TrEMBL record:
The active site is at C59. This is Glutathione peroxidase. Keywords: Oxidoreductase, Peroxidase. GO terms for biological process: response to oxidative stress. Residues 21-183 form the Thioredoxin domain. InterPro entries: Glutathione_peroxidase (IPR000889), GPX_AS (IPR029759), GPX_CS (IPR029760), Thioredoxin-like_sf (IPR036249), Thioredoxin_domain (IPR013766). Gene3D superfamilies: Glutaredoxin. The keyword Oxidoreductase applies. It comes from Noccaea caerulescens. PANTHER family: GLUTATHIONE PEROXIDASE (PTHR11592).
Length: 187
C-alpha cells in the first residue's frame, strides 16, 4: 500500500499562467452594481461603444459634462453608444448623497437617461475592480490615478479600453473617436 503524502492538506497554488488566465481580458469580464444595488454584468454591453465616467453632482465640471454626455447619448445611443456613469465621492466630497439622492439629482436635475451605477472608489485601497482594470489599461499622464471627477474612458465594441480623457476634456471634444468606434461596430 502506497503511503499518502500530506498533499491533501496542502493548498494548491495557481501557476502564473493560471493567474494570467483569470485576469480580466476585457470590460465584459466585470459585474458591477447599478444604483439600485442590482448586479449588472458588463457583458450585456458586448458590441457597444462604451463611455465610462466617474461623476459627481457638486463639481464645477458637472453641468457642462452632463449637458454634453446627454447630447452624445441622444445622438448616438441608437447607433450603439452606452454611457456608464459611476458616482464617486473621493474628490472634495462632491458626490455626498446616498444612491437614492444621487439618482434623483442625476435624473431630475441633469435629465440623464444613461445608466447610473453604485457609488465607487476610483483610487486607493478600496478601488473598484473595474477602475483598477481601466487604469491598468490606459494610465494617465505622469500617474495612473484618477485625478478628478469626470475622467472618461472610451471602450471599443470588443471591450478593450480605446482611450482615456482627462476631466477637462469635454465629451464633445472626442466625438470623432466615438464615431470611429461606432463605425467599427457597424462594419
Amino acid at each position: 500500500k502506497k503511503k499518502k503524502k500530506n498533499s491533501e492538506r496542502e493548498v494548491e497554488r495557481p501557476t502564473t499562467l493560471q493567474m494570467a488566465d483569470e485576469s480580466p481580458k476585457s470590460i465584459y469580464d466585470f459585474t458591477v452594481k447599478d444604483i439600485g444595488g442590482n448586479d449588472v454584468s458588463l457583458s450585456q454591453f458586448k458590441g457597444k461603444t462604451l463611455l465610462i465616467v466617474n461623476v459627481a453632482s457638486k463639481c464645477g465640471l458637472t453641468d457642462a459634462n452632463y449637458k454634453e454626455l446627454n447630447a452624445l447619448y441622444d445622438k448616438y445611443k441608437e447607433q450603439g453608444l452606452e454611457i456608464l456613469a459611476f458616482p464617486c465621492n473621493q474628490f472634495l466630497g462632491q458626490e455626498p448623497g446616498n444612491n437614492e439622492e444621487i439618482q434623483q439629482t442625476v435624473c431630475t436635475r441633469f435629465k440623464a437617461e444613461f445608466p447610473i451605477f453604485d457609488k465607487v472608489d476610483v483610487n486607493g485601497k478600496n478601488t473598484a475592480p473595474l477602475y483598477k482594470y481601466l487604469k491598468a489599461e490606459k494610465g494617465g499622464l505622469l500617474i495612473d490615478a484618477i485625478k478628478w471627477n469626470f475622467t472618461k474612458f472610451l471602450v471599443s465594441p470588443d471591450g478593450k479600453v480605446f482611450q482615456r480623457y482627462s476631466p477637462r476634456t469635454s465629451p464633445l471634444q472626442f466625438e470623432n473617436d466615438i464615431q470611429t468606434l461606432l463605425g467599427q461596430a457597424s462594419s
